[in-house]
Design goal:
Blueprint (H helix, E strand, L loop, with lengths): L6 H6 L2 E5 L4 H13 L4 E5 L5 H12 L4 E5 L4 H10 L3 E3 L5 H10 L3 E5 L2 H10 L3 E4 L6 H9 L18 H6 L5 E3 L6 H5 L3 H21 L2
Parallel strand pairs: 1-2, 1-7, 2-3, 3-4, 4-5, 5-6
Helix pairs in contact: 2-3, 2-10, 3-4
Length: 217
C-alpha cells in the first residue's frame, strides 16, 4: 500500500512543484534534489510520457519523504490510472465534478482546477481539498484577494504565473498554497542535468519562503 498524503508535510512549505514532460530517467535524481532542498509536495502530470510508470516508481522510492501526486487529471480514466500508480493526491486543471466526487469517496486529497468565483465555489462545495485557481497569473494576486473577500472559507492554490518574485504577493492576498512549474523547476537545468545548480535554485527558494514566513507571522 502506498504511503498516504501528509498534510503536516504540505503545511511546512505549501508549494506544489509541477513536472510536465520530464524524462523518467531524470526523475529519480530530480526528486532526490527536491526533497533535499526541503520541499515536500510535487506532481507529475498525466499527459507526460510514461507518467503512471514514473509515479509508481517514485512513490515506492520517495513516498515517505514527499507527497507525490498526479496532475492534469481530467477524466475518471485518468484518475483510475493515477490511483493505481499510487498517486497520493490528485490535481485537475478544470472543474470536473465526477473526478472530485470520486477522490472524496476514495479519501484522496484533490486540488481541483477552477477560475471564476462560481467554479471555485462549486469545486469547494463538491469537496475539493483546495481549489487550484488556474491560470492565476492572468489576473494576479489582486484576483485572489477579491475572490476571498466573500469566499474567505475556501482554500485557494493559485497556479500558473507564480514565480519566486511574486509568490509572497499571492500568499499575502490569502492563498493557502501555491502551484509552481518552470519558475520553480527550470527545464533548462533539468534537461542539462545540472543538479548542483538545481539544488542551489531550490534551496534559494526555500530560504526565500522561510524569510517571507518569518516576516509575516
Amino acid at each position: 500500500m502506498s504511503p498516504s498524503f501528509s498534510w503536516e508535510a504540505f503545511h511546512k512549505i505549501p508549494v506544489v512543484g509541477i513536472l510536465r514532460n520530464v524524462s523518467p530517467q531524470r526523475m529519480q535524481k530530480l526528486f532526490a534534489v527536491y526533497a533535499e532542498a526541503g520541499l515536500t509536495t510535487i506532481e507529475v502530470t498525466m499527459n507526460s510520457a510514461g507518467a503512471t510508470e514514473a509515479i509508481s516508481s517514485l512513490v515506492k522510492e520517495f513516498g515517505d519523504k514527499l507527497n507525490i501526486g498526479a496532475g492534469t487529471v481530467c477524466t475518471l480514466e485518468d484518475l483510475d490510472k493515477a490511483l493505481q500508480a499510487g498517486a497520493q493526491f490528485i490535481v485537475t486543471p478544470i472543474l470536473k465534478a465526477e473526478v472530485i466526487t470520486a477522490c472524496v469517496q476514495s479519501q484522496v486529497p484533490v486540488f481541483a482546477g477552477a477560475f471564476t468565483p462560481s467554479e471555485i465555489y462549486s469545486a469547494w462545495e463538491l469537496g475539493a481539498s483546495m481549489v487550484k485557481v488556474f491560470p492565476a497569473g492572468f489576473l494576479g494576486p489582486t484576483y485572489i484577494k477579491e475572490v476571498l473577500a466573500p469566499l474567505n472559507h475556501i482554500k485557494l492554490l493559485p497556479t500558473g504565473g507564480v514565480s519566486q518574485e511574486n509568490f509572497g504577493d499571492f500568499l499575502k492576498a490569502g492563498a493557502a498554497g501555491l502551484g509552481m512549474g518552470s519558475h520553480l523547476l527550470p527545464k533548462s537545468l533539468i534537461e542539462k542535468e545540472q543538479w548542483d545548480q538545481l539544488s542551489s535554485h531550490l534551496s534559494g527558494f526555500v530560504e526565500k519562503y522561510r524569510h517571507f514566513e518569518q516576516q509575516n507571522k
